Amino acid sequence: MAEKSNTPKKIFRQLTKDNIRKSLWYAKENGWRQLFLKVGEKIQLLAQFDDASDFTDHNAYMRWISKFEPNKEEIEEQRKKRLNKNPKISIIVPTFNTPINFLAPMIESVVDQTYKNWELCISDGSTKEEVRVFLKKKAASDKRIKVKFLDGNYGIAGNTNKAIELATGDFIAFLDHDDTLANFALYEIVSAINANPGADMLYSDEDKLSYNGKMRAKPHFKPDWSPDTLRSYNYITHFLAIKNELLNAIGHINPGFEGSQDYDFIFRATERAKVIVHISKILYHWREHKNSTASNIKTKGNVTFSTQKAVSNHLERIGLNGRVYCGPIFGTSRTVYSLPDKKPLVSIIIPTKDYVDLLKRCIDSIINKSTYTNYEIVIIDTGSQEQKTHDYYKVLSSNRTIRIIKWEKPFNYSAVNNFATTKARGEYFLFLNNDTEVLAGEWIESMLEFAQRSDVGAVGAKLFYPDSTLQHGGVIIGLGGVAGHSHKYFPNGHRGYFGRLVVPTNLSAVTAACVMIPKSVFEQVSGFDETYALAFNDVDLCLKIRALNKLIVWTPFAQLTHYESKTRGYE
């Protein structure tokens, strides 16, 4: 009952002006009865979950589950189906005085798997006799359940390694003692192994499970393999399975990373893995309770030091030079990659036509705010008619870092920028709209630190509308039918979906309103495709770069205001 004692306080914290406004609007649209039903459901959620600050709409998630997760008939089909490859999966669970009401559903979720070639390897350091008795009973009921009773508590790393010693499977998977698996989890893991020859590391999406195990919420739909996202925080977590050969190659769980031992382990695995597979299905249910990091990551006492240590050791092993700092959210890290002593020349390419006030604001912000000094500005005029524009060009002509070139053909965004690159002298091209204004002084450095890496092909920035709402947080393929901006219109300061707006992340594409690309990469993909005269040329360019197996990085530390499309209107 103690788990629910703070419910009134949680309810009171929801009584914000914004929530009251939304409630009145909802009542107007749907009626008071529907509002009361929705409020009742919200209160029930607040009672079940420790952290009610960021709920995914429960009804929407329930609809998603009913649409995308297998129904009863499909589950029965899975139980009968025989796959081409049927590797044994060893599920590793260290336990220590686990409450029976958590331990029992964890074991039951494994026993109920539709895929049957598994073994459950439990190492138990409990001091409570009832836990040992329960585990002995379970081991006797199913020969696939193995239990090693320890003579003491070796800590989370040591206890996990003891459980690994029991494993005889082809793949090793990890499950916490108070969490549960979807009953189709192992079937999806093995299906992915069959579909991806050579797969040696697999992870899935996950959600949160209420204290009593009756409700699911806060799904975490994760990206495919994203190394910069991983260096920001451990987005992989659960459900993780790795090939036994990979486990033996990297060693087991390392001590000395209290609170982040899984983070260090995942880094070491990704460094050696040949094929990393993301299974975009909810296979893992992470239980929320007062001692769980699903509810409060601060329950891991040394997590800040351990996360930074895990990232730093990872960078050292792979030969990346950078310093690791505390990230903007507890449990996150920020890596600042070192720039060379001889700073490379960055060519800032700005197409423009009249609207001299916009251009002047853009140029002034670059000159007055940029802390990086080795840049040139290449302004490409696409047919300005106004005299005040040409007067401004005469003023700029005295600045040796600025050159103005002319485009005398019909406007084509891709062709214009391709032409400008032939006149640029820099090692890096920074394509920039004339209707932008620099906000963060280190914007160039923040992009260049990623662009200089050999595994990166393009770097995008965080762009705001003039009212400080978000205009660009990266581009998601498929959003809006083709591609759209992530987190559009979110307020300044919002963390975004699982912190995505405050840490560097990997994406499929970024907008060319502000993007940095190494000259060598730009030339390798033959620049912008000129058949995209106005829109989606940047998306196409990024996808061509991804085809080279190079990363697209979005960084929140390069910030600009974007007075979007005032020059040419909206497409």
How much helix, percentage-wise, in residues? 25-40%
The count of helical stretches stands at: 19
Average pLDDT confidence is: 90
User: Sheet bearing the most strands, described?
Assistant: 10 strands, mixed
Spans of at least 5 consecutive residues whose pLDDT stays below 50 are 48-56, 566-571
| Backbone CA Rg | 27 Å
Number of strands: 23
Assign an overall shape. Answer: elongated
Secondary-structure-based class equals alpha/beta
Between the first and last Cα atoms, what is the distance in angstroms?
A: 56 Å
How big a fraction of the residues is strand? 15-25%
Summarize the structure.
The protein is of the alpha/beta class.
Tags for this entry?
single chain, 23% strand, 19 helices, 571 residues, alpha/beta, disordered C terminus, nine-stranded mixed beta sheet, 23 strands, 36% helix, ten-stranded mixed beta sheet
Written description of the protein model:
It is a single chain. With 571 residues, this protein is of the alpha/beta class. It is built from 19 helices and 23 strands. The chain is elongated and about 90 Å long. The protein starts with 6 loop residues before the first helix and ends in a 9-residue tail after the last strand. Mean pLDDT is 90; it is low at 48-56 and 566-571.
